[in-house]
Each structure stands twice: as structure tokens, then as C-alpha cells.
Amino acid sequence: MAKTVLKNILQILIILIFNNFLAQKTPEKLPKNVVNDTISKKDTIVVKKEALDDILRTKADDQRRDVPKKMTFLNKNAQVKYQDMQIDADYISIDDNKNLIYARGKLDSLGKIIEPVITTQAGKKYETNEFSYNTKTRQAIAFNARTEESGGVITAQKTKKYNDSVFAMRNADYTTDEYYIKKKDTAADYFMRASNVKLIKTKNKSQIVTGPIQMYIEKVPTPLILPFAILPFSEKRAAGILIPSFGEREDVGFFLNGLGYYQPIGEHFDLKVLADIYTKGSWNLRPQMNYLKKYRYSGTFTADVGTMVRGIKGLDDYTKNSTYRIAWTHTQDSKANPFLTFSASVDIVSTKFYNNPLNNNYIFNQNVLNTQQSSAVTVTKRFLKLPATITGSASYSQNFATGLADLRLPQMNVAINQFYLFKSKTGVRQGLLENITVNTGFNLTNYVSTQENELFTKAMWDKMQTGLKNNIALGTNTTLAKYFTFSLSANIDNALTTKTLNKYYDPVKNVDVDEIQKNVAGYSTFSSSASLQTTLYGMLKFRKGSAVEAVRHMMTPSLSFTYSPDFSSPGFGYYKNYYNAEGALTPYSIFEKGIVGTPSSGVVGALGFNIGNNIEMKVKSKSDSTGVKKIKIFESLNLSGNYNFAAKSHPWSLIDIRGQSSFFNNKLSVNTSLALEPYKIIFAPGATQGIRTEEFGHFSVQGFNVQLSYPLSSEIFGKKTDYAKKYPSKGEVRNENYYFDDDNYAHFDQAWTLNINASYAYSKGLSALGNKIASVGLDGSIKLTPYWNINGSTHFDLVTKDLAYTRIGFSRDQRSFTINFNWVPFGQYKVYDFFIGIKANILSDALKYKDRSFTQPNAPF
After folding, report:
1. Which of 208, 220, 348, 710 is the most buried if burial means most Cβ atoms within 10 Å?
2. Cellular component per GO (predicted)?
């Protein structure tokens, strides 16, 4: 007994001594003259770290807690929230011992999961069949996980989350099929499968890195296998190589098209450089720079420089041409700076760029038919207080037929805002004096017309002309006798130029010579006019019950008188005379072939007339709520001409008639013009050119033109059918645009359009035989089904009986893929293009196939 008591006392003493030893702390070395405190500053209690870093919130229709096993079970509508993660499932278990959360989707009677586990973290949603998460290591494992990434979806048999940035996946599929993404279909029409995939996520972007990856279409494996793939998902731009397309063309050999590199430059710029390489020597380099600053400006700069080689060197069919194209567009936001705007539309090409294209797109968009090309750069300055607008510009125009290039560099126009010459006495302007307005400004132009190979050479600068023009326009009007408007106007033109014309006859070469002299010269001209105008209305009503109720006629007749002196008089010095090859004294203006125009010759004292007409008809209509519908017979019908009292011969001008109207609910548009010669024209025997006599009153047709256009569509010929109400069932998945009747026949809206254009022009002048131009053009499209679209255009020359430019194309919406085919079957360029590829931007450059024909004159198709 004594031994047992002693043994217990010794054990207690040992425990106390041991605890005291553990509680001791090594004294800190204190400075001198400082007494150490006998109480330790460190707490002797060690707090055990909690297993969870945050509160674990749970809820479910049925919750059960197994205390001995430290397990929690959640059934039906179960939910767990932990930190930034939320788990929603049919069943969730929480194991406190293993720090593990396990979730499972809803099962059907056969044990198949019919509703997934939905895990949301950092705003990203994941769907899985089973999901487990370790709250301590923050790692997770998911089975049959599904997650969306930038327009695509990834599904994997097993996914392991190492941390918030790295996910490893086994047997993963990636697709951009929108029907599968939106869960309209349980199987994707295509996917890319890899046995091992790593998904790397950062704050601003994510990417997939795989080993070998294979393409499947409708679950069928294809031979398309890549050794590896990197798919970046990011809203921000990233540099990278652009994948080319490859093929073979008979004229240029094997090729790589679109091999290039993309590089973002700062926040507002990016650069793409593409190259086309052909084994027979042709090549193209196509850099493109885009820039954008929101609410300020945007633009694109592109270039296309290359060499086109065809045939075999040393043979007759061998050709080698260097071509180039430089294009720049710049647009300024209208709100960026209302007082200073800048715009550019530059497109400069070599003469044979479109005629010898390596790119069939220039044929399909009809660039090969271009005869001219224009470019312009414009800067406009406005002022808050100064009533003026200054516009500076440079323009460049090319003519591919003549090879000439017109350059205006620089140009400046200063326009003074219209102002009244006198102030109003009462605040309401009345009378001719108070209504006098002044418009003025001046224009400075530097102009040259030269060959393309002379641009910016000494030869071009020698041809450059400089001109300065000023115009002052005065105008006023008032009302006479309540129904007439009386107007007066005067125009003063002033001009200066740096070059004038000197004409003379060279007896040695037996030709008339135009000699351009470098000297400053100018002229001033003026003219004045007065006009009187009124408006007349007329109404012709028909008896009651008639289909036509009334015809309304509005007429606006006007008379005007214009006067200008004869500026060819010797006193002005604007005209000179020379003896031509026949020895006849011939007048000419020293400003001919200049850029400031030529002063008018001969006195003008002309009385002009113009009669404008507008004719409408009211007819009964059951479709209109008022019971009456207006039909425009002539929207405008104008008759005009003039009589020059000062003319020594032929005082009457041509009589011009112009009309415009529309029919069939404004669908058919008709524009026409007619020119009548009031004097008799006679022809000598065998002559092709006539002579205009002084015999008045014959009114022969000198010109006639009519243009018609009519846009047809499926909506014009019937009301749109409400298929949802008419037919009992609607298709599913891909057939959702079809409606089925009781016999299971599909119905859908088969929309179509057809634009018809026709034109006829006749011109005669003084020739015995007139010239005729007549053509009919068709341009339209039809949707054979909701996913098939056929389009095309053609023109038929009614004079030559030939088909002009014709294009036929079709497109097919193949769910995740798109198919396009374009064909030009006639003409100099007979080509086709076929394309099939993925719609999604992330794979559009990688997964595609393109086949095209080559252009070869007179080649059989």
C-alpha cells in the first residue's frame, strides 16, 4: 500500500517537473542596466490550427450528421459553400477526418446520372458526374467534367485540379458545336480528342496544351492528327504563327497561302504579315496593320507586293510581272473633335494588279472589271467663332485603260459661311435688299496628269500646274403678288494659274503645236440672272363609283434670264488667234488645258424656261384603311431649254425632258431622259456627219435614255406564313427551323430575292447612225432550305447578244462548319473557289480546306 502511494506521488512530481521544464524560456540577452522580467512574454498555450480556413455552409432537403465518424450527409437539393466555391448536387458527403467533400449527380432508376453536379468557382461553372474536393490541399478530382472556354466546351472522363491554375484531364474532347454547347444535342457533330490535356488558367487568359490530338466527325475518327496543339483562350490579343493553306495550281505550281505571323503592338495597334509562296517563282507579301482608339479613331493599312510568274522561262508563254497595292483607310469618330476631322481612303495599285491576280477574290468581287481607281485624304478644320471652314486634301486617280494617273497634291478650300449683306430692320427679313446673301471662298489646287512610271520624278513636277480660284455669289429673293417668287443672283469668278497655252502652226512638221508656258496669268468673269417662279395646282375629279376618283397635277413653271459678256473680246486678253494648217485664223484661250477653266466666249443673253410637273392619281383600294390609295404617275417630269438672244446663229438650245416615277407600290423605279434637236440636220450624199441648219421646228431625237430597276422578293407575292400556328409539330435539334404537317412533310420559309435592272441608251448627235447601249442585269438569292443559300448575278448585252460578267455561288450552313462555293463560268476569267472550315474563330485558321482554280485566258473549264 505504501509502495503504491509513493509510486503515484513520484509520477505526479515527474509530470510537474517536466511541465515546468517545458514552460521554461531561454532568457533574452538584455542591455545593461535593464532588469529582466520574471514573467514570460510568450503565451504558454499553443492553439491548434483549424482544419478549415473558412466557414463551411451547407443546406439540403435532408441533412444527417454522423458524429462518431465525423461525417455529414446531404441529400436532395444539396449545396455546399466554401470560400469562393459553391457545389450544387443531388448528394454530398463531407468527411472531416479526410478534409474531403464528395458530390454526385442525380441518379435514375438504372443508376445512370441524369443531372450533373454543378461547381461554381470564381464565376466559372463546371458540370461533372462526380466531384471530390480536399479542403486542405485545395485539390479536386472530377469525372465526366464539362467546362466552357471562350465559345467552346471541354469534356473529360477524369479531371484533376492541382490548384486554381492547373487542371490535368484524361481522354478530353474539345468542340465549338453551338448545339452541343447550348445542350440542344447530346452529341457534338465534331470534336478534337486527346488522351492527355493540361488546362492552364491565369487571371486574364487560359490555354489548352495537348499531346497528339485527333479530329472526330459524327464520332467517326478522321486521318487528321496533330502531334500537339495549343489553344489559347483570351479576350486579349496574343502573338502567334498563322497557319497557311496549301495546294497546287497548274500555272504557278505548288503553293503555301497565308503563311504569316500576328503581333499585337501596344493597346491600340496590331500587325499581321502574310506571305504566299509558289514553287514556279511567284510570291506575295501582304502586311496589314489595324489600329483602334475607342471614341477617337480607327483605321487599317494594308499592302500587297509581289511578283507573278507564269509559264516556263525561255518559252513564248513565259511572263513575269511585278505588282503592288497599297491601301489605307482612316475614320475619325464624329464626337472626337467636331472642329478638326481627318479621313483617308487610299487604294493605289499597279496597272496590271487586278488583270493578273493570284487571288481569285479580285475576280469574284469584280475588281478585275475596274477601269479606274481613286484615293483621297482629307483634313477639315472648323472654328467656334470664325465663320469659315478650311479643307485640305490630296487625291490620286488612276485610269487602267490609258495608264494615266491624275494627282492633286495638295488642295485647299476655304469656304466662308453664308451671311446676309444687310441687317433686318424689323427682325423679319423682307424685300430684295434685306434678303441679299453672300457665298464666297477660294480654292487652291496643284494638279498633274502623268504616266504611272513618272510619278514623283522631275518629269512629273515639270507638268504640275497650280491654280487659285475665288467665287463670289450674291443672291436674293422676294414674293411678288403673293403667288410668285422673284430671284436675283450674280456670280463673280476670279482665277490665277502658273501656266498658259501658246498655240501655233509648225510648217516643218505640218502640225498644230500646243506650247505650255510657265508664267502667272489670271482672269475675272461675271454673270447675272433673274428668275420668276410659281406653283399651280389642278384637280380632275371623276364621277362617283369610278375606279379612279381623281387626278392631281402640280406644275412649277419658271422663267429665267441670264447675261454674261463676251470674254473672248481682245480687250480682256483671255483669247488669242493663230493661223492653223489650212491658213484659217483660229481663236483659242490661253487658259485651255489648264486647271482653272476657260472664260466663256460669246455674249450670253438667254431666256430659259423650266416646267416641272408632279402627277398623282387617287384610286379605290380595299387594302387601304381609308379606301383610297395614291398612285404616282410622275414623281417629276421636267421640260427645260433656253433661247439666247445674243447668239448670231442657233439661238435655241436642245430641249431636255426628264422624268422619274415608280410603280407597283414604289417597287418599279423608272428614270428617263429625252433630248430633242429643234433645228433640221441635213446630210450630204455619203456623209456620216450632218450639218445643223437654221431651219427651226423639226425636233429630232438626239438622245434617249431609260433605266428600270425592280426588286422582287418572296414577301411581295404573298403574306408570310405563320408555320407555328399552321402546322402541328416543330423539328428538334438541327431541324428546329422546319415545321411538319400530319403527313410528316417538312415546311419552312423559302425566302428569295431577285433584283432586275434594265437600261437602254441612244445617242445620235450630228452623226447619221446613232449609238445604242442596252443591257439586262439580274442579281438575286434563294434559300432552298434554312441552311442552303444560292446567289448569283449576270448581265446580258442586248446589242451584242453576249453574256457579260456572271457569278454563281452557294453556301451551306453545316452546323459547326460552313461551306462556300463561287464560280465565274464565262468571260476572260473563268475561276471557281471552294471552301469548307470551322466557323469558330479559334479554329477557323487551323481547320479548313480550300480549293480553287487558276485563271488562264481562253482555258476550257
Report:
1. 208
2. cell outer membrane; transporter complex
Cell numbers linked to 625: 384603311
SS3 of 300, please? strand
DSSP per-residue codes, 146-171 = EEEETTEEEEEEEEEE-SSSEEEEEE
Look at domain 57-236 and name its CATH class: mainly beta
Place of cell 494617273: 405
Type of residue numbered 714: S
User: Coil, helix or strand for 800?
Assistant: coil
Contact by Cβ (8 Å): 781, 791: yes
Q: Is residue 573 within 8 Å of 519, Cβ to Cβ?
A: no
pLDDT of residue 856: 54
CB 152 within 8 A of CB 842: yes
Residue whose C-alpha is closest to residue 562's, from 507, 625, 607, 619: 607
CA dihedral (779, 782, 787, 788) positive or negative:
negative
What cell numbers appear for 581 in the block?
Answer: 494648217
Residue ranges in the chain whose pLDDT is less than 50: 1-3, 5-10, 12-44, 46-47, 857-861
* pLDDT (0 to 100) of residue 345: 94
CA distance 517 to 847: 65
Model pLDDT, residue 34? 41
In whole angstroms, give the CA distance from residue 554 to residue 552.
7
Residues 448 and 463: their CA atoms lie apart, in Å, by 6
| Owner of C-alpha cell 478530382 | 141
Alpha-helical runs (H) found in 635-761? 723-726
DSSP string, 636-654: EEEEEEEEETT-SS--B--
CA 609 – CA 802 distance, rounded (Å): 43
Which has the closest alpha carbon to 60: 84, 89, 20?
89
535-547: buried (b, 16+ CB within 10 Å) or exposed (e) per residue?
eeeeeeeeeeeee
With a CB cutoff of 8 Å and minimum separation 6, the contacts of 726 are: 739, 747
Length of the chain (residues)? 861
Alpha carbon distance 215, 174 (integer Å): 10
Q: pLDDT tens digits for 579-631?
A: 988 888 999 999 998 899 999 999 999 999 999 999 998 888 776 666 788 88
**Which position has the grid cell 441608251?**
761
Q: What is the pLDDT of residue 48?
A: 52
Distance CA 377, CA 347 (A): 11
Nearest Cα to Cα of residue 680 among 695, 665, 658: 695
Predicted TM-score (pTM) of this structure: 0.72
Task: Give the C-alpha separation, 599 to 522, whole Å.
Answer: 10
Task: Match 427551323 to its residue by C-alpha cell.
Answer: 737
Which ranges in 439-487 belong to alpha helices (H)? 458-463
Helices (H) and strands (E) in the chain, counts: 7, 53
Count CB atoms within 10 A of the CB of residue 445: 20
Q: How far is CA 296 from CA 330, 379, 392, 860, in A?
A: 11, 15, 20, 52
Strand order from edge to edge, sheet including 739-740: 729-730, 739-740, 746-747
Residue whose C-alpha is closest to residue 849's, from 832, 861, 833, 837: 837
- Which 8-state DSSP code applies to residue 547? S
Q: Kindly state the cell numbers that stand for 239.
A: 502573338
Quick one: pLDDT at residue 820? 94
Closest to 156 in 3D by CA, of 121, 131, 184, 123: 131
Which residue(s) pair with 66 in the sheet? 71
> How many Cβ atoms from other residues are within 10 Å of residue 169's Cβ?
25
| Three-state secondary-structure class, residue 670 | strand
Q: Is 696 helix (H, G, I), strand (E, B) or coil?
A: strand
| Domain ranges across the chain | 57-236, 480-645, 646-853
pLDDT value of residue 201: 82
Contact (CB, 8 A) for 574 and 567 = yes
CB 803 within 8 A of CB 795: yes
Cell numbers 513565259 correspond to 318
